[in-house]
Amino acid sequence: MKRYLIYTLVVLVSNLMLVSCMDSYLGIEQLDLGTDRPEKLTVDKVVPAAGGLEIYFSLPAGNPNHAQVVATYRNKMGGQMEFKVSRYSNKILVEGFTGTDEVTVDLAVVDESGNRSDVTQVKEKPLLSPVEIARQSLAASPAFGGVKLEWKNQQAHRFAIHVLTEDEIQKGVKTLIEDPSKTVYSSDSLNTATYLRQYDNIEQKFGFVLSDKWGNRTDTLIQLITPYKEDIIDFNRIEAVSYFNPTYGTTSKDYAEFGVDPLTGIQNDATTHSATFAPQTMFNGVTTANDFLARKFYMQAPGGERTYLNDVYVTFDLHQDLRLSRVQIYPRPSSSYLYSRSSVKRFRIWGTNDANAARWSKFPDDWTLIGEYVGKMPANPASITQEETDYFYSRQEYAISEDNVNPEATPTASFRYMRIQLMESYTATENFYTINEFKMFGEVIQAY
C-alpha cells in the first residue's frame, strides 16, 4: 500500500510539472519586452527612382530592441503593398508605382515584440516606371511571317509583353484576345527585339500590353499590321555539292598543300571530321544534335608556329531560286559551347544562280554577297542570364536585310547556289567550327 501511494504521488507531481511547463513554453519562446511602442523614425532623404522611392532614415537612438522598418502603401488597384528592411539598414526601396503623381508611403518601426511605432509619412513623386518607359519605346512593325517588336530596357528590369490578336467571340463581334503562347519576357538590356510568328500575309489587328511583377499593366498599343509573306525553306531539297573539293579528315590540314584549288585559285571547301559531320548535316532538320564540324586550315612556316585561318567555306545547291528573309542557327547544345568554343560568331552568305556559267571556276567573281552577320554577346559573359541562354540555343536568328553588317552586300538578291563563309568562332583560338542546323526562311521563286 505504501509503495502504491508513493507511485501515485510521483505520477501526480510529474503531471503537475508537465502542465506547468506547457503553460510557460509553447514551441519557440517569445521575448516579452512589454507593450510600449517604439519611437518614430526620422526620414533623412527621399530619392525618386524608376517606379519607386528610395527612402533614407534614422532610427530612434537608445533602443536596442528595434527589429525592422516596414513601409506600406495602397496601389492603384487597392492592394496593400509592404516592404521591409532590418534594423541594420538605413534605407528602404519602395517599388511598384506607376505614373509620376505624388504618392504617400507610411513607415513604421517594429520591435522584437511586434510593437509598431506611430507612422511617419513620406510624400514624393516617383519617376516613370520601367514598364511605362518600355511602353513608350515599344514599336511594332511588319516582318517576314509576322511582327517585329522592339523596346528599351536599359536597366535590365523584368517585365512581360502580352500579345493580343483579334478573334471572333460571336458571329460578327470581334475583340482582341491575349495569346499566352506569344508572351515575351524581358530582363536584358541588349536583347530588346523579337519576332512574333507565324501569321498569315493579310492585314490583322494586334495589341501589345506590358506588365511587371507588381501587377501593373500599361495601356494597349493597337496596330493594324500586314506580315510579309514567308516560307520555311524545305531542307530536304538542299544538297551539299563538291565543286570546291570538300574533304574528310580528323585533323586540320595545311593550307599551302590542301587549301587552294591549283586550277582555279579558289579556296577549297572545309575539311569535315567524317561523313557524320559533313556539310549535309546542317540541313537535316535536327536542331539538338552534335552534327556539322568543319576544321580550319592552318599555315606554318618551317620551324615556325602554326596559325589557323578563320575563313572556312561550305557550298550547297538549294534546288530552288529563293530570296532569303532570315536564318536561324542552332549550335551544339552542350554548355561548353554557350557563347564559346567552336560556335559560329561571324559568317557570310554568298549566292549565285544558273545564269553564272563560271560559278564553279570563279569566286567571288560573279557571286553575290547576300549578307554578313555577327552573333550577339551576353551583357555580362561572366554571368549569362537564362534569357541569353535560351536565345543562343533556340532563338539565334539573323534578319537577312536588317542584321547585315556589310555595306557591299545585296540582301534582296535571289539565288539558287549558296556558299557559306564561316569567319569567326566565339573562341578565336578554336581550330574548327560547329553548327547543328542552318534553318532558312524566305520566298521561294522557283523550285527545280
Automatic annotation (TrEMBL):
InterPro entries for the chain: DUF4959, DUF5000, DUF5126
Residues covered by the DUF5126 domain: 129-234
Domain DUF5000: residue ranges: 312-442
Domain DUF4959 intervals: 29-126
Domain of life: Bacteria
Name of the protein in question: DUF5126 domain-containing protein
Source lineage: Bacteria, Pseudomonadati, Bacteroidota, Sphingobacteriia, Sphingobacteriales
